[in-house]
Structure prediction request, 518 residues.
Amino acid sequence: MSSPNHGVWRPIAENVEFNALESNSQAVMAVAETVRTTLGPKGLDKLLIDQAMNRHVSNDGVTILLSLKAIHPVARMIVEIAERQEQLVGDGTTTAVVMASEMIKEGKRLIKELGVHPTKVVEGIDNGVKHACKILEKDAKTISLEDKELEQIIKTSLSSKLDGINLSELVIKSIRTVGNNSVYNNLFDFDKSIKVIRKTNVSDTVFNGIVLERKRMDQEMPMRILKPKIMIVKLDLKPVKESWLKENNRYEEILNMENDRLLKSKKIVNEIIATGANTLLITSPEVDEVIENLLVAKNIFATRISSEEIEFLSRYTTAKPVRMIEDLKNADILGYADSIYEDEDTGLIYIENGSGKNIVTIIVSGTTKETSLERWRSVIDGVNASEAALNRGIVAGGGAAEIHVIEKLKSLRLKGLEQVGLDVVASALESIMRQILTNAGFNGLEKVMAAKASKPNIGVDIDTGDLVNMFEKGILDPLLVKLMALEAAGEISKSVLRIDRNLAAEDLSQQSLSEIKR
Prediction:
């Protein structure tokens, strides 16, 4: 069997009896064991140490998973799916991995002990996941910006995070400040209206406007501009490269190039000034010294920005990026705000009251770079959770929503052995509450059985161990996070359970090539 890259495939363990299902399931369990103890408000942290001996403490599932140097291909696949879960909804990675491990453990038991064919188990898992998602969607409740449930969603999301209560206040304030200005195509998209930065020497705050982690290009430029006329410059501001001058040995040609450099620089600056712009946000990695000096002489406020910040700045100020000199002739390229200024103490630039869409910046502090990074991730998780909740609704948290899906799921009647696949999904749904309670120091199995026998939305208070209504207690989760985690877990488990042999590609050697020819 040949591969597209002209390699050959061979069993990973040649001449040795090799059980692919056993190996692959063990890889999944190993990854799950790494993160399962972080689940829930009482979850524990992990100390991450990189090759440079930098230390970082975190209980963020995707951060821990991405730090793993996974070698086993199935372990790497789980990390990739967890990363995709983070990109799509920003939360639920640990939940997805824990449920996947439970599905694979139960699926392996059916295949190895009861002799059920893998395709039947996989079909049952597929049906179970689809039906469970439908039940969750039916049980979900919609919320609006002003509902108290939005605050509860954010607090639940951040309850296990470093300084979660204080950070939740920042998120709630920012969400309600941008409000309905964050709706695009009938869905909330806070990525377009909330910017999150971290700075160790600044207090936690929500700034109504855009904050840039930059300084002015030159300290002689004005520190503040009132009523700035803003231009986003994507032009090449290095018209004559220094390397060209160094490569040329002839004095006359060097002099001509220097004169050409001066003329081109003056032309660019004059044409920019002619538009009325007094504030430049520049993406060019290099700015000619002549241009910079001319900007200082013209009393222009200029700073560099990243390509990722262009969309924020354009939306906030209505400035349109200038890519070519010809664009300077357009009448609507400038953007506007009430002020732009640099705070020399913090090294940050603030833009207030832009003429476009409302945008806020959350500034997250920390005593060290590591703590500020962890708090920054937490704020982003809170923003993502609120977005998911507003767009798709909410369900009971703490694993209660999953627990009360199980009975409805088991009442389905599927054909033949596909029914056993539902038991696999049911076990996975139960594993979330069980793990949260175990991490809180309770007998997870005992408490789960009590919750299952109760009414819908009933879960377990992790402080007292009592049965409580999770909606009344304010323990809520976004529906979308649950759906995506369940679907991701189903996808992982189906892929792993269908593999009956692990093969590895090996480049063709001259010997193997001659063997093929014979």
